[in-house]
Amino acid sequence: MELPGTKGYAEMLDQRIIRYEQLAFREVHSVVLDLIPAVPGHVLEIGAGTGRDAAALADMGHRVTAVEPTDEPRAAAERLHPSPQIDWIDDGLPDLARVVELGAQFDLVMMTAVWMHLDEKERARAMPRIASLIRPQGLLLLLLRHGPLPGDRRMFDVSAEETTGLAMAERLFPIRNIQRESVQEGNRREGITWTSLAFRKVG
Ligand SMILES: C[S@@+](CC[C@H](N)C(=O)[O-])C[C@H]1O[C@@H](n2cnc3c(N)ncnc32)[C@H](O)[C@@H]1O
Q: Which of 102, 77, 93 is nearest to 127 (CA)?
Protein backbone atom coordinates (compact mmCIF):
# COMPACT_ATOMS: atom_id res chain seq x y z
CA MET A 1 0.00 0.00 0.00
CA GLU A 2 1.61 3.28 -1.08
CA LEU A 3 1.20 6.07 1.45
CA PRO A 4 3.09 9.39 1.57
CA GLY A 5 4.80 8.44 4.86
CA THR A 6 6.31 5.25 3.45
CA LYS A 7 8.69 7.15 1.12
CA GLY A 8 12.17 5.63 1.26
CA TYR A 9 11.27 2.43 3.13
CA ALA A 10 11.44 0.07 0.14
CA GLU A 11 15.06 1.11 -0.49
CA MET A 12 18.20 -0.26 1.16
CA LEU A 13 16.20 -3.04 2.76
CA ASP A 14 19.22 -5.12 3.75
CA GLN A 15 20.66 -2.23 5.73
CA ARG A 16 17.33 -1.52 7.37
CA ILE A 17 16.92 -5.15 8.38
CA ILE A 18 20.30 -5.08 10.12
CA ARG A 19 19.65 -1.71 11.75
CA TYR A 20 16.17 -2.52 13.05
CA GLU A 21 16.71 -6.14 13.96
CA GLN A 22 19.91 -5.58 15.95
CA LEU A 23 17.96 -3.40 18.37
CA ALA A 24 16.53 -5.18 21.38
CA PHE A 25 12.83 -4.71 22.15
CA ARG A 26 13.65 -4.49 25.86
CA GLU A 27 16.17 -1.72 25.28
CA VAL A 28 14.07 0.31 22.84
CA HIS A 29 11.06 0.19 25.17
CA SER A 30 12.88 0.00 28.52
CA VAL A 31 11.01 2.92 30.09
CA VAL A 32 7.53 1.48 29.36
CA LEU A 33 8.19 -2.26 29.74
CA ASP A 34 6.41 -2.35 33.09
CA LEU A 35 3.19 -1.11 31.43
CA ILE A 36 2.98 -3.91 28.84
CA PRO A 37 0.26 -6.31 29.95
CA ALA A 38 1.62 -9.48 31.55
CA VAL A 39 -1.57 -11.35 30.69
CA PRO A 40 -1.63 -12.41 27.01
CA GLY A 41 -3.90 -10.13 25.02
CA HIS A 42 -4.41 -8.76 21.52
CA VAL A 43 -1.84 -6.20 20.35
CA LEU A 44 -2.00 -3.95 17.29
CA GLU A 45 1.39 -2.84 16.05
CA ILE A 46 1.23 -0.05 13.47
CA GLY A 47 4.20 0.48 11.14
CA ALA A 48 5.76 -2.77 12.29
CA GLY A 49 8.72 -2.61 9.89
CA THR A 50 10.82 -5.78 9.90
CA GLY A 51 8.91 -7.28 12.81
CA ARG A 52 11.30 -6.98 15.78
CA ASP A 53 8.64 -5.73 18.22
CA ALA A 54 5.83 -7.93 16.84
CA ALA A 55 8.04 -10.98 17.41
CA ALA A 56 8.96 -9.92 20.96
CA LEU A 57 5.31 -9.34 21.83
CA ALA A 58 4.33 -12.71 20.35
CA ASP A 59 7.08 -14.35 22.44
CA MET A 60 5.46 -12.75 25.50
CA GLY A 61 2.29 -14.66 24.62
CA HIS A 62 0.32 -11.91 22.91
CA ARG A 63 -1.58 -12.29 19.68
CA VAL A 64 -0.24 -9.57 17.39
CA THR A 65 -1.90 -7.89 14.45
CA ALA A 66 1.04 -6.27 12.71
CA VAL A 67 0.32 -3.54 10.18
CA GLU A 68 2.98 -2.52 7.68
CA PRO A 69 2.13 -0.68 4.44
CA THR A 70 5.51 -1.13 2.71
CA ASP A 71 5.73 -4.52 0.96
CA GLU A 72 9.50 -5.03 1.33
CA PRO A 73 9.86 -4.83 5.13
CA ARG A 74 6.56 -6.68 5.58
CA ALA A 75 7.80 -9.59 3.44
CA ALA A 76 11.12 -9.59 5.33
CA ALA A 77 9.28 -9.60 8.66
CA GLU A 78 7.17 -12.62 7.68
CA ARG A 79 10.33 -14.46 6.64
CA LEU A 80 12.39 -13.45 9.70
CA HIS A 81 9.71 -13.97 12.34
CA PRO A 82 7.35 -16.75 11.24
CA SER A 83 4.85 -17.09 14.06
CA PRO A 84 1.28 -18.33 14.21
CA GLN A 85 0.73 -15.60 16.82
CA ILE A 86 1.32 -12.78 14.29
CA ASP A 87 -1.09 -11.72 11.54
CA TRP A 88 0.50 -9.41 8.96
CA ILE A 89 -1.70 -6.83 7.28
CA ASP A 90 -0.95 -4.46 4.41
CA ASP A 91 -2.59 -1.34 5.85
CA GLY A 92 -1.65 2.07 7.20
CA LEU A 93 -2.50 5.33 8.88
CA PRO A 94 -4.47 7.49 8.93
CA ASP A 95 -7.43 5.24 8.07
CA LEU A 96 -6.39 1.67 8.96
CA ALA A 97 -9.34 0.56 6.81
CA ARG A 98 -8.46 -3.15 6.83
CA VAL A 99 -7.88 -3.23 10.57
CA VAL A 100 -11.22 -1.53 11.17
CA GLU A 101 -12.88 -4.23 9.03
CA LEU A 102 -11.63 -6.86 11.52
CA GLY A 103 -13.96 -5.35 14.14
CA ALA A 104 -11.40 -6.06 16.90
CA GLN A 105 -10.64 -4.10 20.05
CA PHE A 106 -7.04 -4.17 21.19
CA ASP A 107 -5.49 -4.31 24.66
CA LEU A 108 -2.39 -2.53 23.44
CA VAL A 109 -1.62 -0.42 20.36
CA MET A 110 2.04 0.27 19.63
CA MET A 111 3.60 2.75 17.22
CA THR A 112 7.37 2.79 17.28
CA ALA A 113 9.06 5.45 15.15
CA VAL A 114 6.01 5.87 12.92
CA TRP A 115 3.93 8.87 14.06
CA MET A 116 6.47 11.40 12.72
CA HIS A 117 5.84 10.13 9.17
CA LEU A 118 2.34 11.67 9.21
CA ASP A 119 1.68 15.33 8.51
CA GLU A 120 -0.48 17.45 10.81
CA LYS A 121 -3.76 16.68 8.99
CA GLU A 122 -3.00 12.95 8.92
CA ARG A 123 -2.16 12.95 12.64
CA ALA A 124 -5.42 14.70 13.48
CA ARG A 125 -7.34 12.18 11.38
CA ALA A 126 -5.44 9.14 12.66
CA MET A 127 -5.72 9.63 16.44
CA PRO A 128 -9.54 9.18 16.67
CA ARG A 129 -9.24 6.07 14.50
CA ILE A 130 -6.51 4.63 16.71
CA ALA A 131 -8.44 5.46 19.89
CA SER A 132 -11.54 3.71 18.53
CA LEU A 133 -9.53 0.48 18.24
CA ILE A 134 -8.41 0.43 21.90
CA ARG A 135 -10.62 -1.28 24.44
CA PRO A 136 -11.52 0.58 27.68
CA GLN A 137 -8.48 0.54 30.02
CA GLY A 138 -6.32 -0.48 27.06
CA LEU A 139 -2.97 1.14 26.36
CA LEU A 140 -1.39 3.20 23.58
CA LEU A 141 2.43 3.29 23.42
CA LEU A 142 4.25 5.63 21.06
CA LEU A 143 7.91 6.26 20.43
CA LEU A 144 8.45 9.71 18.89
CA ARG A 145 11.63 10.75 17.11
CA HIS A 146 13.14 14.25 17.49
CA GLY A 147 16.13 15.83 15.79
CA PRO A 148 17.46 16.51 12.32
CA LEU A 149 15.08 15.33 9.61
CA PRO A 150 16.50 12.92 7.00
CA GLY A 151 16.24 13.89 3.34
CA ASP A 152 15.48 10.40 2.06
CA ARG A 153 12.20 9.93 3.95
CA ARG A 154 9.10 12.04 4.64
CA MET A 155 9.33 13.08 8.25
CA PHE A 156 8.05 15.87 10.49
CA ASP A 157 9.17 17.22 13.84
CA VAL A 158 6.26 16.14 16.04
CA SER A 159 6.06 17.25 19.64
CA ALA A 160 4.98 15.21 22.64
CA GLU A 161 2.67 18.11 23.55
CA GLU A 162 0.73 17.98 20.29
CA THR A 163 0.50 14.19 20.47
CA THR A 164 -0.74 14.34 24.06
CA GLY A 165 -3.37 16.93 23.12
CA LEU A 166 -4.69 14.77 20.27
CA ALA A 167 -4.76 11.71 22.53
CA MET A 168 -6.53 13.45 25.42
CA ALA A 169 -9.26 14.66 23.05
CA GLU A 170 -9.98 10.94 22.44
CA ARG A 171 -10.11 10.01 26.15
CA LEU A 172 -6.59 8.63 26.12
CA PHE A 173 -5.12 9.70 29.47
CA PRO A 174 -1.33 10.36 29.57
CA ILE A 175 0.51 8.11 32.01
CA ARG A 176 4.12 8.40 30.86
CA ASN A 177 6.27 10.91 28.96
CA ILE A 178 10.01 10.23 28.99
CA GLN A 179 12.51 11.79 26.60
CA ARG A 180 15.94 10.21 26.24
CA GLU A 181 18.86 9.89 23.90
CA SER A 182 18.94 7.29 21.14
CA VAL A 183 20.12 3.76 21.92
CA GLN A 184 21.95 3.81 18.54
CA GLU A 185 25.39 5.42 18.60
CA GLY A 186 25.08 6.90 15.09
CA ASN A 187 21.76 8.54 16.00
CA ARG A 188 23.23 9.90 19.25
CA ARG A 189 26.04 11.55 17.28
CA GLU A 190 23.40 13.19 15.04
CA GLY A 191 21.53 14.53 18.07
CA ILE A 192 18.46 12.34 17.65
CA THR A 193 16.37 11.87 20.80
CA TRP A 194 13.19 9.91 21.45
CA THR A 195 10.11 10.36 23.60
CA SER A 196 8.26 7.36 24.96
CA LEU A 197 4.60 8.21 25.50
CA ALA A 198 1.98 6.01 27.12
CA PHE A 199 -1.77 6.63 27.32
CA ARG A 200 -4.51 4.69 29.09
CA LYS A 201 -7.99 4.71 27.54
CA VAL A 202 -10.59 5.96 29.95
CA GLY A 203 -13.66 3.73 29.73
C1 LIG B 1 11.38 3.90 11.22
S2 LIG B 1 10.41 2.57 10.61
C3 LIG B 1 10.02 1.76 12.16
C4 LIG B 1 9.71 0.30 11.99
C5 LIG B 1 9.46 -0.45 13.31
N6 LIG B 1 8.33 0.09 14.02
C7 LIG B 1 10.71 -0.43 14.17
O8 LIG B 1 10.71 0.22 15.22
O9 LIG B 1 11.68 -1.08 13.78
C10 LIG B 1 8.86 3.33 10.17
C11 LIG B 1 7.85 2.39 9.54
O12 LIG B 1 6.60 3.09 9.42
C13 LIG B 1 6.01 2.69 8.22
N14 LIG B 1 5.04 3.74 7.83
C15 LIG B 1 5.26 4.88 7.15
N16 LIG B 1 4.11 5.54 6.94
C17 LIG B 1 3.14 4.81 7.53
C18 LIG B 1 1.73 4.96 7.64
N19 LIG B 1 1.09 6.01 7.10
N20 LIG B 1 1.03 4.02 8.31
C21 LIG B 1 1.66 2.96 8.88
N22 LIG B 1 3.00 2.75 8.77
C23 LIG B 1 3.72 3.67 8.11
C24 LIG B 1 7.16 2.53 7.25
O25 LIG B 1 6.80 1.73 6.13
C26 LIG B 1 8.23 1.91 8.14
O27 LIG B 1 8.22 0.51 8.10
A: 93
Domain region containing 21? 4-201
Does the beta carbon of 29 sit less than 6 angstroms from any atom of ligand 1?
A: no
Residue 144 sits in a domain whose CATH number is: 3.40.50.150
Q: Find the helix packing angle between 160-168 and 120-132, rounded to 10°.
A: 40
Q: Is the CB of 44 under 6 A from ligand 1?
A: no
Q: What is the pLDDT of residues 101-153, one digit of tens each?
A: 999 999 999 999 999 999 999 999 999 999 999 999 999 999 999 999 988 89
Total domains, the chain:
1
In the reported structure, the alpha carbon of residue 70 is separated from the centroid of ligand 1 by a whole-number distance in angstroms of 8
Q: Is the CB of 3 under 6 A from ligand 1?
A: yes
CA distance 104 to 125: 19
